[in-house]
Every structure is written in C-alpha cells, then in structure tokens.
C-alpha cells in the first residue's frame, strides 16, 4: 500500500504513516523527447475527468515553485558545467518538493495525479543515458519517495530518429536535447528494459501509430484502471 512520508513525532526522523483509506491513482507518463507526451497527457486527463474523477497534472523536474526554479537550472544551457552527480541530486531535490507538496496531498485527498515524468526518467536518463549507478538512483528514490510509486506508468515509445525529428521543430534545444543520438538510444533501451522488468506497472505504447490509435489505446488502459477502481 502507498504510504505518506512524514516525520516521526517521537524521534524527529523520517518515517511513514498510512495514507488515506481512499487515495487517488498515481499515473506517470514517460518517454524520450518528441514522443507526444503533452498531447497524450491531455487526452488521458480528459478521459479520467469524463469518468468523474478530479485530476491534478504535474511534471518533473518541476511542479512546485522551488522545483520549477531547479528545473530552470537543469534545462537551461549555461557556462558553468553541471556535474552528473549534481544533476541527479537536483532532480531528486525537485522530486522531494513535488512528492511532498503536491503529489501526496492530492492523492490523499482522493484526486488522481498525472505526472509528466518521474523516477523512471532518472533511471533512463541518469542511469541509462549518463551511466550513473542504478543502485544509487534506486537508493535515492527509496529515500525521497519511499513506496510512492505510480499505479500505472505509460511509456510512449518511438525510435530515436522519429522523436528527435519531432522535438527538433520545437525551437532552441534545451540542455538535454543537446545530447547526441547515442545518448537517447541508451535512454530508450533503458526505458524498454525497465518496462519489461515491471510489466504489472508499465504499458508501452508505440507512438509511431496514428494519433487516434494511440488515443484509443490510452483510453482502453484508463478504462481498465477505472474498472479496477470499482472493485
Ligand atoms: P520535458 O519535461 O520537456 O520532457 O524535459 C525534461 C528533461 O529532463 C528531459 O530531457 C528529461 C530530463 N529528466 C532527466 O534527465 N531525469 C529526470 O529524472 C527527469 C524527471 C527529467
């Protein structure tokens, strides 16, 4: 069961307490650049709202004022080098803000949360792409958000050339988009591997299909989640 992160009253150290009895569902959307996250998140949210649920959308890195400040540092090109370890720690600092100040309060109030990227992005980009140790990433994840893992993760997948061609039409590249083709190949491979390791949480959607086909696939997945919810 998902638990909220809190501070233990007796000892002042981090601890966990039971979350609300009827929490909302936590859904994340992942994928390399240019796979159509924004369009598909809009369709996903509309489908959940049509079923009568309140939905909060957020994104990572970001989602709170402080976390958005961290996002600016991470995304903007700058003369000061950003060591990979600093990048990873900043991403998890932003995640701590988003989880504690936005995601958990919403879930505990029964609101569904759709988050554009989460810890699977850190595994794929910092682990797969940059080559940082996966054990370190998973230890940070455990420390920062405990067992707050998504109920469902939708991995939007497309070959790197397809994603890059779409992302390339969106204006000046950010710090991540400046990476080379092989970086994104490693990120994509890592995503597919993580999804294969956790089939009970992941759905992989091929976004080279038509917009309508992708939207219908997402609709069917949400239908399943909504029906589960009725049990
Ligand atoms: P986006 O929000 O436009 O998709 O861009 C966010 C960028 O941040 C994207 O290139 C992936 C990167 N990122 C990581 O490298 N690690 C992470 O944990 C997260 C959440 C994002």
Provide a brief overview of the structure:
The chain has helices at 37-50, 65-75, 84-108, 119-129, 134-145, 160-167, 181-197, 211-230, and strands spanning 3-7, 14-18, 26-30, 55-59, 112-116, 152-157, 202-206.
Looking at this protein, list some descriptive labels.
alpha/beta; 7 strands; binds thymidine-5'-phosphate; 231 residues; Rossmann fold; 51% helix; globular; 8 helices; five-stranded parallel beta sheet
Low-confidence stretches: 3-21
Helix content: 40-55%
Question: Helix- and strand-based class?
Answer: alpha/beta
How much of the sequence is in beta strands? 15-25%
Largest sheet: number of strands, sense, barrel closure = 5 strands, parallel
Strand order of the largest sheet: 4-5-3-6-7
Look at the structure and give the CATH class.
Answer: Alpha Beta
The total count of helices amounts to: 8
Number of domains in the coordinates?
Answer: 1
Oligomer state equals single chain
Overall, the morphology is: globular
Instruction: Report the average pLDDT across residues.
Output: 90
Q: In the CATH hierarchy, what is the superfamily?
A: P-loop containing nucleotide triphosphate hydrolases
